[in-house]
Automatic annotation (TrEMBL):
Protein name per Swiss-Prot or TrEMBL: FAD-binding domain-containing protein
Range of residues in the leader sequence: 1-16
InterPro entries assigned: FAD-bd, FAD/NAD-bd_sf
Keyword field contains Oxidoreductase: yes
UniProt keyword list: Membrane, Monooxygenase, Oxidoreductase, Signal, Transmembrane, Transmembrane helix
FAD-binding domain segment(s): 118-454
Transmembrane domains' residue ranges: 550-568
Organism: Sphagnum troendelagicum
C-alpha cells in the first residue's frame, strides 16, 4: 500500500486541510507505508466528516484521544517539508458517527522521528514507568491493561492490590522521572516496625534506622499513569479493559480482546479484538503473566517455573490508633505510624498504614468462609481487633469474601526472546520478605531504557532500511538486558529464599547483635539498611548478609565463651570457699 492510496481514501477537503495544517505545498508524493509511526511533537488536526459529506475544520490544538481505536496509515512528504499522517481512527465514545481524527506531524529540523513502536502488557508500576522512559526516547507506546480506569484513578471495584514498602532503590528510580516527591505524598513514611507477640498485647517498637515508604501498589501505578497521560499524550496510549489473548513472538505481534457493552440498555455485550505489531513487546503483567505463559508455549528455548506459597487474605480498613498509631520505643522516643506485625501461633497479621488513616492488612491462617467462622477465628487469635470483626461487621464480610492470595518465586531461562522481554514480577517475582521486589522491578525499567537508547543511537535515517535496523537493535538490547539482569535476579531470589527460612526470633537476635557490633565498629552496618538505603548490587547484598551471619555466629561463640569462662570462675570460687570452710 502506497501513500497515494492513502490520500485517495481521504476526501479532498480532508487532504487540503491536512496540507494547510502542515504548512506544506499543494501536492504530496507517496512513500511506502510507515507502520510504526512515531507521533512525537504532534500538532493535531481534528476533522469531523458529517453525514452529508461536508467537512468542518477546527483550529489546531493538542488533545488526548484515548477513546480512538487507531490504525497506522502512512508516511507522506512534500517539497515544503515532511508530514506524517499517523492515524485515522473512529471515535467510539459518545456514539459520534463518521468522526475521523487526522494527526498531522511535522518533522522539525534536528528532531529525531523514528519508526519505533512499543507494546507494554500491564499498567502496573513497572509498565507505567517504562512507558514514561520510552516516551522520552521518542517511542510510540501502547499500554494494555485488563483493569478499568475512571478519569485519573482506577475504576471502582477494581482490586486494590498489595501495599508495598519503597526504599532507596525505588526512590532513585522515581527521581529519574521526577516523581519521587509526588509518590512520597501518596504514602506514609515508616521508620520502624511494631511487633505484638502472643497474649499480653504489649506493642514492641523496633526502629529500622532508616525510612521506608508504605504505599498501595495501585496508588504508585496511578501516579505513573497520570504522569504519562498528562506529559506525553501524543506518545503514550493506555488501553484499559484490554486483555492479552495471544502472542506471536516470532512476528512481534500481539492480540488483545476487550468486552464491550452494546449500550442499548439490554445488558448485551460483545467482544472487540485488536492485533498490534510492534518493534518491542514488554511483558509487565505480574506474577501470573500471560506474556510469560505465551512465550513458554510458543518458544522451545524458553521455560519457566513458578513456586507459590499462600500469602493470606488482604483487606483495607481502619484499626484502633492505640495499636497502630504513635509508638514509643524502649528509649522513650515517640514514633509515628509503623508497620504492624502480630504473631499468634499459626496465624499472622501484617499491616501497613495508608495516608487516609486506614491500614492495609494481610492475614495468614484464616480459614473460615462465613462471617461467624471468621469472627470466631479473629476473636481467638487477635482479640484487640475483636470489635472490628464482629459477626455483623463490614470488615468481617470483606474478610470472609476475600480470596486467598499467593506470592511466589519465578525462575525463567531468559528474560527475552527476539523482540519480546519480561520485566518486574513477570520475570523475577520474589518472596515479600526483603522489600526489594518493587525497587528491582523499577530498576528493570531504567536498565532496559538505557540499553535501548544506547543501542538505537547509530541506526540509519533512511526509511527503507530503518525498520530492519530497529528490530536488530532492539533484539540486541534485550539480549544484553537479560545478560545483565539474570545474575542479579538469581541472587535476589536466593537471598529472599534464605531470609524466608529464618524465624522471627532469629531475625531479632541477629539484628540485636548487629546493633551492638555497629556501635563498636560504625563502618559495619546491617545488610537490611544497605538494601533499603543504597543502590547496590544484590549479589553484593547477599555477600554482606553472609558476612553478617559469620559475624553474628562469631559474636555468639564469643559470648558463649565469656559465659563459660564466667561459669568456670564461679565454680572455682565456690570450690575455693568450700575448701576453706572445710579447713576451718
Amino acid at each position: 500500500m502506497m501513500g497515494g492510496g492513502l490520500l485517495a481514501s481521504l476526501s479532498p477537503p480532508v487532504a487540503a486541510a491536512a496540507s494547510k495544517a502542515s504548512g506544506c505545498c499543494r501536492d504530496f508524493h507517496g512513500h511506502p507505508i510507515w507502520r510504526n509511526a512515531h507521533p512525537g511533537s504532534a500538532r493535531f488536526l481534528h476533522v469531523a466528516q458529517g453525514c452529508g459529506g461536508r467537512t468542518t475544520h477546527r483550529h489546531l490544538i493538542k488533545q488526548r484521544w484515548f477513546s480512538c481505536r487507531e490504525q497506522e496509515l502512512g508516511y507522506l512528504s512534500s517539497s515544503g517539508g515532511e508530514m506524517l499522517v499517523a492515524s485515522v481512527g473512529r471515535k467510539q465514545r459518545r456514539c459520534v458517527e463518521n468522526v475521523m481524527v487526522v494527526r498531522c506531524l511535522r518533522k522539525t529540523e534536528g528532531e529525531e522521528v523514528l519508526p519505533k513502536r512499543a507494546v507494554i502488557v500491564g499498567a502496573g508500576p513497572a509498565g507505567a514507568l517504562l512507558a514514561l522512559l520510552l516516551a522520552r526516547q521518542n517511542w510510540r507506546v501502547d499500554v494494555f491493561e485488563r483493569k478499568h480506569w475512571d478519569g485519573d484513578h482506577w475504576a471502582a471495584g477494581e482490586p486494590a492490590g498489595w501495599s508495598v514498602m519503597l526504599g532507596g532503590r525505588a526512590a532513585h528510580c522515581l527521581e529519574k522521572v521526577g516523581l519521587k516527591e509526588e509518590v512520597w505524598l501518596k504514602g506514609v513514611v515508616c521508620t520502624g516496625r511494631t511487633t505484638i507477640r502472643e497474649r499480653g498485647l504489649t506493642p514492641k517498637y523496633q526502629a529500622y534506622g532508616y525510612d521506608m515508604l508504605a504505599i498501595p501498589q495501585a496508588e504508585l501505578a496511578a501516579v505513573l499513569i497520570n504522569s504519562g497521560l498528562s506529559n506525553h499524550p501524543s506518545q503514550i496510549f493506555y488501553h484499559f479493559g484490554w486483555s492479552l489473548q495471544c502472542l506471536h513472538p516470532d512476528q512481534a505481534t500481539t492480540e488483545f480482546s476487550h468486552l464491550c457493552e452494546d449500550g442499548d440498555g439490554g445488558g448485551s455485550s460483545s467482544v472487540e479484538k485488536m492485533s498490534v505489531t510492534a518493534d518491542l513487546i514488554v511483558g509487565a503483567d505480574g506474577l501470573h503473566s500471560k506474556t510469560r505463559e505465551e512465550l513458554e508455549w510458543k518458544t522451545p528455548s524458553f521455560s519457566s517455573s513458578l513456586q507459590q506459597i499462600p500469602a493470606g487474605r488482604h483487606l483495607r480498613l481502619r484499626v484502633p490508633m492505640d495499636v497502630v498509631g504513635t509508638q514509643i520505643d524502649e528509649a522513650g522516643r515517640v514514633h509515628g505510624p509503623s508497620m504492624l506485625v502480630v504473631v499468634r501461633s499459626s496465624r499472622l497479621l501484617w499491616g501497613l498504614p495508608n495516608c487516609d488513616g486506614t491500614m492495609a492488612l494481610t492475614l495468614q491462617g484464616i480459614k473460615g468462609s462465613t462471617t461467624s467462622d471468621v469472627s470466631k477465628e479473629m476473636s481467638e487469635s487477635f482479640p484487640e481487633l475483636a470489635e472490628i470483626f464482629s459477626v455483623d461487621a463490614e470488615a468481617t464480610r470483606q474478610l470472609a469474601g476475600a480470596k486467598e492470595r499467593t506470592q511466589g518465586t519465578v525462575v525463567v531461562t531468559t528474560f527475552n526472546y527476539k523482540q519480546t522481554v519480561l520485566i518486574g514480577d513477570a520475570a523475577h517475582s520474589l518472596l515479600n520478605v526483603t522489600h526489594l521486589g518493587t525497587g528491582l522491578a523499577l530498576e528493570d525499567c531504567l536498565v532496559l531504557g538505557g540499553l535501548l537508547q544506547e543501542s538505537l543511537v547509530a541506526i540509519s535515517d533512511s526509511p527503507e532500511t530503518r525498520d530492519g535496523q530497529v528490530a536488530e537493535c532492539v533484539t540486541a538490547a534485550l539480549a544484553r538486558f537479560s545478560e545483565e539482569r539474570m545474575p542479579e535476579m538469581t541472587a535476589a531470589a536466593n537471598l529472599c529464599s534464605e531470609v524466608a527460612k529464618t524465624n522471627m526470633f532469629q531475625v531479632e537476635l541477629q539484628q540485636a547483635i548487629m546493633r551492638v557490633i555497629a556501635r563498636v565498629v560504625p563502618k559495619i552496618q546491617p545488610w537490611q539498611k544497605s538494601a533499603n538505603t543504597k543502590v547496590i548490587s544484590v549479589k553484593q547484598l547477599a555477600g554482606w548478609r553472609a558476612r553478617e551471619i559469620v559475624l553474628v555466629r562469631v559474636a555468639l561463640v564469643f559470648a558463649l565463651l565469656l559465659m563459660l569462662i564466667r561459669a568456670i570462675r564461679l565454680v572455682r570460687l565456690e570450690l575455693h570457699i568450700s575448701i576453706k570452710y572445710l579447713e576451718l
